[in-house]
Amino acid sequence: MNHTRRDWVGIYKTAVMEFSRNKSPASIDVAERAIVKLLRELPIADSKLHRELKDALNSLAVLKRML
């Protein structure tokens, strides 16, 4: 899946707002992959976005542990 800088937020929100325990792991996985891909493409100079992406990954990890 090819995601842009702008749509990681929507993908992340979809994962966080998924209340179905059956669908949530897949939504989290999609969001994690999109964020990791963007992190790999991100120039180091963009530290604000880098920090936001890392925070989002940490939140998804917590959510995953809660399932």
Structural features, described:
The chain is mostly helical and 67 residues long. It has one domain (7-66). It has helices at residues 7-17, 24-41, 47-66. α1 packs antiparallel against α2 (24-41) and α2 (24-41) runs antiparallel to α3. The longest helix has 20 residues, at 47-66. It is elongated. It starts with 6 loop residues before the first helix and ends with a helix. 15% of the residues are buried. The mean pLDDT is 89.
Percentage of residues in helical conformation? over 70%
Structure annotation, total helices: 3
Give me the Rg, rounded.
Answer: 12 Å
Pairing-aware structural class of the strands and helices?
mainly alpha
How many domain units?
1
Low-confidence stretches: none
Oligomer: single chain
Strands, count: 0
Measured distance between first and last alpha carbons: 25 Å
Strand content: under 5%
Q: Quick check: average pLDDT?
A: 89
Biggest sheet layout? none
In N-to-C order, the SSE pattern is: HHH
What sort of overall outline do the alpha carbons produce when their principal axes are compared?
elongated
